[in-house]
Amino acid sequence: MNGWACLPIHLSNNLMTRNHTLLTLALSLTLSIGLPVVIGAAEEPDPESESSGEKNGDTDAKKKAPAKDSKIKPYDEVITKDAKTDAGLFYVHRVEEKVYYEIPEDGFDLPLLWVSQIAETQAGHGYGGNPLGNRVVRWELTDDDHVLLRQVRYAIRADVDDPIRHAVEATSLAPILARFPIKAWGKDKAPVIEVTDLFLGDLPEFSAKKSLNAASADKARSFIEQIKSFPDNIEARVLMTYKLPDDRGVVSALLHHSMVRLPENSMRPRIEDKRVGFFSVSFEDYASESHRVEEVRYITRWRLEKKDEEADISEPKKPIVFYVGRGVPGKWRPWVRKGIEAWQPAFEAAGFRNAILAREPPDPREDADWDAEDARYSVIRWLPSTIENAYGPHVHDPRTGEIIEADIRMYHNVLKLIRDWYFVQVSPLDERARQLPFPDELMGELLAFVVSHEVGHSLGLPHNMKASSAYTVAQVRDPEFTAQNGHVASIMDYGRFNYVAQPADNVPLIPTIGPYDRFAIEWGYRQFADSDSPESDREHLEEILARQVDNPILRFGPPNPLEDPTRQTEDLTSEPVEATRLGLLNINRIIDFILPATSKEGEDYSELGNMYEQLLRQRGRELGHVASVVGGVEERRLWYGQAGQVYHPLPADRQREAVAFLNEHAFSTPDSLLTPDILLRLEAAGAADRLLSHQRGVLDSLLHKTRLQRMAELATRADDDAYPPHSLLRDVRDGIWSELEQDPVSIDLYRRNLQRAHVGRLAGFVGVSPSSDETAALARAELDGLQELIREVVANADDEPTRAHLRDIIERIEHTLRPK
Length: 820
Known about the structure:
By secondary structure, this protein is an alpha+beta fold. The strands form 5 sheets. Strands 1, 2, 3, 4, 5, 6, 8, 9, 10, 11, 12 and 13 form a 12-stranded antiparallel sheet that branches. It has a 5-stranded mixed sheet with strand order 17-16-18-22-19, covered by helices on one side. A 3-stranded mixed sheet has the order 7-14-15. Strand 2 (91-95) and strand 3 form a beta hairpin. The chain is elongated and about 105 Å long.
């Protein structure tokens, strides 16, 4: 995966579909049913509880004394005078190494969100701040003097007064995570249970064993470091030690568990619409009147409610607050705050002023209870890691999609990622970027961009890869247009930096919150005064979505680069060929100053080697954008009544133009990148293999089996405006083997390598088992024709390496087509 994502990583409550690649805390609490019952280690009664005795203290405040054979002890014998008690959601008692919950009557059957994270760990075993998972739980009092901890699932629903509701309930039994014997009765019949083993017993649902690649928990070297009860949540910090496999020692990690009360008054959900991008939570609705089981999806979003419901723009009753974590380096903190609050104008379009705020965490001397792992706080976390990435998950209420909190994780080496990309994409356009290291101000601007992108994920927005193809080349080179709209329509795309611009254009180079972002936030967060249900919201939402018909800038599309060239990553503009032509000019400009920019007296050439490799990768990415034009089909997510067809094949002349461009630039030898003044500072040899690797990437994408199959099918529908696969194969052969037209024939090393790769690609199609498509037949015909051409010219080879190469190709094709 390139760059940062909603990893991209969306850890859900047990599961999250991969097509929501990147982000609730994972990012989605999509739920299922039917898991087996899990009995916790706390099920066994405490041997000490077998003794009985009279109950001491205020008898009116305690349950009647237990029977003689009861294992329930008097309250004061369990919660002794030495107990340290914390009042809040539950009473939490600590008696030496044991921890007890005293659960009030109103604490049962509450939906509670349990979030587990790694707060601290050892180098080489994950990172502090990494999530372990989240789930909704409830506590249940049984008739046999036990308390159950059960997992609550919302995968199927039927919210109607109908017998189907009972059928749904009968198939929604909540799995048991743990079972606890009651140790004593507190005031108002509040049961007291010991929960020590809930944290130390290594239950799979709360364990870090898998994340740490450990074998088992070592209870003897684990303990509950701290546990606190607040009015709506309980926070626990547990130092766990795990044994590593194969007697490789142990690893210790500090785990943080938050148990948070879900909102008593549920937020009004908003029904997902695939024409605009939001992460979502789904369930099967058996109360639907559509004569089928209907999958309902609610978008994930924060609860924003106007203080002044009559005002066009109002401050919210409760704003979205992100704290800049204590681990964020000092010089980057202002830029992190800037990246957070860059979203304020987007929320103004939805009717909210100061909807999202950046704050500094309180001084520990002022608020010792503030904790970045506390699920009540959303925090920008800084992780000391060489990983070049960042991601923005969130945790939400599975009943409605309401986002409860979000912790954005910034790996330290994301700084290298954005520095490298800025250098190889736009350093000819920004004097500050022509010498490493960059000045702090430039790095701060780049970091604010990454933070804004990740905050977007934490607001509920997935990647919109269509946004970077919304503008023309002329628009991204226009200072007035880009000042108002940026050079990509959404910061949620992988548009990166404006490599299409040229030195005299004087346009912005870094993505900002774009027109699509403001549109999406308005659709997702705007309130409607005359609406009182998700269904009645729809009329207003349709009015917003209607803008997409005449304004392609507002359209949404998830990644699909192999099929749809308007939904690629790292690309710019609706004109991939012209955009890449201009981008390659900038790459050639960088070669002129890459040596002095990356080198310092008394140092080696490792930075030069890094940037040279990054430059080749950027060149390959841009050429890959052109390859995606071939056989491309644009998807326009407009529904019945808005437009006709959804899928629009690209014209044949655009596809032929793309292949001609690749023959000229991707499959020719880029002499400017092969200057000895650079190569001989890096290695004795290897440039040929490196170049072939990049060319092979473009070739494999262009001659992808799926692409060829799609082109064959499209050719049957397009009449005269078609570019069939046999034409593509012929055009690629003519470009890669253009030396066969020379007199005499002379082929250099780099081209010989590419030609062998071309024959190997075709041979791969021939060698597969027979299938329903005609790719193998087309490849066989292409190899036959190529072999015949080579036989005609092999005697006219100008040098021995060329002659040997051509004879070898003849034999390779012969072996492929007619194996002995």
